[in-house]
Amino acid sequence: MGATLNIESCSESDRRTTLRPSHVRMAIRVNPEAFFWVGGGNVTMAGGKRVPHVDDNNGVKLRAYTGEDVIVTLEGTDRIFNFGYISIWCALALQDFGNAVIPADLNVPPYVASGNPSPIMPEFPNGKVLKEDRFHICWKVDEAAGTLRLRFEGTVKRDEYMSFGISGSQTGTSMPESDVIVAYIGKDGEAGAMDYYLQSRSQCVPTNGDGACPDVLMGSAGAGATNDVTLLSSRVNRGITTIDVERPLAAIDAKDKAIALAPTYVSWAIGELNPEKRVSKHSLVPRGDVQVDFSQESSSCPRLALPAGDKDVTPWVIDDLTPKPAPEVITAHIGPSGGEQGYQGIAGQVGWGIAWYLNGLLVPELNVQRNNIYKFEIYGGNDNSTNLANFHPFYITSDSDGGYNQKTAKEKEAETIYAGPSGGELCDFTSMADPKDFDTFEKYAETLNKTCPPMLKPGILEWTVDPETPDVVYYQCYQHRYFGWKINVSGASQTAVSFALMVALLALAVFNQI
Which residues contact 460 (CB under 8 A, 6 or more apart)? Predict the structure, then answer.
């Protein structure tokens, strides 16, 4: 067992104690009769006792846990000071699978009695439901200290973020130019809270601060911008994530917005983190304007309903694309990424919410042969002067992530570009449908609409597949990361042909000497 033990509650008047062996990881091939076990001295069957946990059902053995928080509550008159350890004990093998020592000199805070697994604590008297049973925000203003404390509470998964902050517009809810806090707990169990400025509706480009960027990555666009958010605490309890943060009421740098103690338009969102632990495109946002009155003294949040168990998501099956060499044309458009069933499930990483479509297929694997020429018509957008959200040059690269234009000099040196970049005017697919409602890409594709300007001019990219091209390369976006997927390259390389010829000549020479 790898775990962190948090002991969260105990008092003289209420002797119940909550143990939180957080981030439990069990790597057990068989399913033994394992239970949470407490006792004093050495870990033994005779010297301890089983204690119930949140998943307990008439004493059933523990299920497998990976990176989860687990609540174990001592019963009756038991107190934490009666025990010296908590372990995972296998009753079948009489074996300790791992334990944590409980120090004798603990100073444990009082227990807060509540039937609600995620109560609104007294220190956050005010709150608002942003999305029923999905996302609540609670707050406390301390004018004397000049601070605002916020509690983010939502039914989100590991590596899903919750964002909340001041709208980019004083007359309504608007994402562009919003000043928000992004809070999350990653798959590694580490919590984070970052100050973000949403320059535009696109992926963060750290070199110039365009897109949805943390203040500290605003580059020249945010000179002097800092992370003015302090992470106070975090926890996950039965599927409900709670993260407490603090920020100044005043604007500390040019990218911050001051908190007005009056009705204020706000922005919020839920989405997934990308591999850099920065925000990807949201999966949930408000529909309409949202206001919060930070001077309000009597509001409260209702209890969040416990989330239903996660359903397994099966990625869509996308047919490979095996084009003929030029003059046959491969078209490349931008379109919605399809969420967990789409790009995320296919490529195994979180994108920005949009991805490449080749010949109308969402990120298909492309099969090509060496020594052939392939022609692409690109409709990714070629105007980088005003809106990088609509600027997606297509290129072929050795790097599975792409985004050459936003990389450091050292990262660029490690990458090989085989063709491109090429842009062309933007002609993209859009859909108002939720990808989760479709079990196949073919059904989802029926909801797609193509939006193109008149007299459309594509970018042209012709790629001669060099004999030394590796077996796997990638088509990606030159400006942003995580847009494309895999190209499988086949056919004998020049090195292989030369080696085969050498072997044949050697065999012929040997034959002539016989």
Answer: 375, 376, 377, 378, 422, 424
H-assigned helices in 327-380: 343-347
Cα separation, 40 vs 20, in Å, equals: 18
Neighbours of 149 (CB within 10 A): 18
CB 36, CB 65: distance < 8 Å: no
Residue 21, pLDDT above cutoff 50: no
pLDDT tens column, 87-133: 877 665 566 667 778 777 665 554 443 434 444 444 677 888 899 88
Check if the beta carbon of residue 61 is closer than 8 Å to that of residue 50.
no
d(CA 130, CA 250): 24
Over residues 440-459, the mean pLDDT reads 92
- The reported pLDDT for the residue numbered 88 is 79
- Whole-number Å distance between alpha carbons of 53 and 57: 9
Q: Output the pLDDT for position 119.
A: 41
> Residue 31 CA to chain centroid, in angstroms?
31
Residue 155 near residue 134, CB atoms below 8 Å: yes
How sure is the predictor about 34, in pLDDT bands with cuts at 50, 70 and 90? confident
| H-helix or E-strand spanning residue 366 | strand 366-369
Contact 225/218 with Cβ under 8 angstroms?
A: yes
What is the C-alpha to C-alpha distance for residues 184 and 152, in angstroms, rounded to an integer?
9
Which token pair is 140?
Answer: 């406390």
Name the percent of the chain in helix, strand, coil, to the closest 5: 10, 40, 50
**pLDDT, mean over the chain:** 80
> Which residue's entry shows tokens 């580490």?
190
Here the tokens at position 35 are 């239970």
The pTM (predicted TM-score) of the whole model is: 0.58
Higher-scoring residue by pLDDT: 322, 5: 322
CA dihedral 177, 180, 185, 187 (to 10 degrees): 0
With the C-alpha atoms ordered 220, 221, 222, 223, is the resulting torsion angle positive or negative? positive
Dihedral angle of Cα 357, 358, 361, 363, to the nearest 10 degrees: -60
Residues 6+ positions from 470 with CB-CB distance below 8 Å? 398, 489
Residue whose C-alpha is closest to residue 447's, from 457, 438, 459? 438
pLDDT given for residue 486 in this prediction: 95
Contacts of 193 (CB under 8 A, 6+ apart): 181, 182, 183, 184, 229, 230, 231, 243, 245
Q: Which residues of 4-15 are buried (b: 16+ CB within 10 A; e: fewer)?
A: eeebbbbeeeeb
